[in-house]
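Example for tutorial group B:
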């Protein structure tokens, strides 16, 4: 188990005075169970219930009153009541609607007990009329490993320290760039990174990618609410990775004859399972963020490594020294998007891009993020040759004068003038500093 950034959020939760049962959200295989098992080592007593185990599930389905249920849990786990702190981990909780409903009683009746529940399909069961204990639980989201977590896993803690200092010395720039390039090739799935740490061989990862994708395909029946939904979801999982990062239409997606309504629902189910995200555009240059759902969304997947493998571009990414030119720049946009979300534990967080509202306009900004009351544009470019026409259009109508360009070059700040004469500060950051984008903005805004 290598260090995950979410650990500090778990630590904060564990000492909170108003601690509630914690639901840990995330797609399958992002490391939820491993994370909790590692975190449990700090507790005097630990009880692990997996609701894929029939005996564990039966505890919650037996209609016992809550106090009797607690006695049964401790008895079956061969643990002693009254030892504090005790951590109870209810894994795969989506398998029992009763277990979900009973979380409120842990909060109300035994607040001294620390309870974590984890599930990768929780949102997909909302339509089954299961009542979530609103206001009685809290949430954290776990995503694939970030670049910082990857560096920790391969033992490059010294590079993490340099990145967190923001002012990366020139001698370290190329070294960190090479590591980020390798991270972009293999992605952030914990099992992939663990295998790479053990073998230092990318070719040995092929079976793991295949196993992960096959597992998601096997889960289709769990995602879909009916048999017709299965075929739509299976189609997206089969061909959709080749459309990653691109704007899509639901109607006849992926060369199918499927209609927009059915495909739209299938896409939304995969979003609920946290495997994919539909990223919609905004047209305003100031807050609030108002997504335009009439326009085509971009289609993002859970992890860049899975995309590279399934779209057969692994070798192209690996062999190209400037991956920001690979796949028409889509690879670079995907990894920046993944890094923007990787450090965010809020289950409601979304990503957005910008398009100009004028008819027939093709102007787009890769990402926009809120920062201190402003909407900051982020362009992903391949060096100095990247054109900034869309950036100029955005800045000319924005109430501020700050923009970000992500590239392969070293950190720099340029003073730029738009065609209409507006001065703005263009902050150029290397890919490996996307993790510190808010700290950089704090320094220069």
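The residue assignment follows.
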């Amino acid at each position: 188990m290598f260090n995950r950034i979410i650990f500090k959020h778990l630590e904060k939760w564990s000492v909170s005075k108003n601690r509630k049962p914690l639901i840990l959200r995330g797609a399958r295989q992002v490391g939820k169970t491993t994370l909790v098992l590692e975190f449990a080592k700090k507790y005097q007593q630990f009880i692990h219930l997996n609701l894929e185990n029939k005996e564990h599930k039966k505890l919650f389905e037996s209609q016992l009153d809550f106090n009797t249920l607690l006695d049964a849990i401790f008895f079956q786990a061969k643990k002693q009541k009254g030892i504090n702190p005790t951590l109870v981990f209810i894994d795969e909780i989506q398998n029992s609607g009763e277990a979900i409903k009973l979380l409120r009683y842990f909060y109300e009746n035994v607040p001294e007990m620390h309870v974590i529940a984890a599930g990768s399909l929780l949102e997909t069961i909302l339509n089954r009329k299961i009542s979530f204990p609103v206001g009685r639980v809290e949430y954290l989201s776990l995503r694939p490993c970030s670049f910082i977590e990857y560096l920790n896993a391969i033992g490059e803690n010294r590079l993490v320290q340099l990145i967190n200092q923001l002012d990366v010395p020139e001698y370290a720039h190329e070294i960190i760039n090479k590591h980020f390039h390798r991270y972009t090739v293999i992605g952030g799935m914990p099992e992939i990174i663990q295998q790479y740490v053990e073998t230092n061989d990318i070719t040995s990862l092929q079976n793991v990618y295949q196993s992960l994708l096959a597992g998601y395909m096997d889960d289709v029946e769990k995602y879909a609410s009916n048999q017709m939904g299965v075929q739509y979801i299976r189609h997206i999982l089969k061909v959709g990775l080749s459309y990653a990062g691109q704007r899509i239409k639901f109607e006849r997606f992926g060369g199918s004859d499927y209609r927009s309504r059915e495909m739209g629902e299938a896409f939304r189910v995969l979003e609920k399972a946290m495997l994919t995200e539909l990223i919609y555009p905004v047209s305003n240059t100031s807050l609030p963020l108002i997504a335009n759902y009439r326009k085509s969304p971009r289609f993002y997947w859970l992890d860049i490594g899975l995309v590279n493998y399934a779209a057969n571009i692994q070798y192209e990414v690996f062999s190209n020294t400037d991956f920001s030119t690979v796949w028409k720049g889509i690879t670079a946009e995907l990894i920046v998007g993944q890094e923007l979300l990787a450090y965010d534990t809020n289950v409601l967080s979304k990503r957005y891009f910008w398009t100009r509202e004028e008819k027939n306009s093709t102007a787009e900004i890769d990402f926009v993020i809120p920062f201190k009351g402003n909407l900051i544009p982020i362009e992903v470019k391949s060096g100095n040759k990247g054109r900034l026409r869309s950036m100029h259009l955005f800045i000319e109508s924005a109430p501020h004068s700050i923009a970000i360009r992500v590239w392969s070059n070293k950190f720099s700040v340029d003073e730029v003038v738009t065609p209409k004469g507006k001065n703005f500060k263009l902050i150029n950051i290397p890919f490996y500093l996307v993790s510190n984008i808010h700290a950089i903005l704090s320094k220069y805004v």
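The chain has a mean pLDDT of 92. Compare this with the pattern of hydrophobic and polar residues in the output above.
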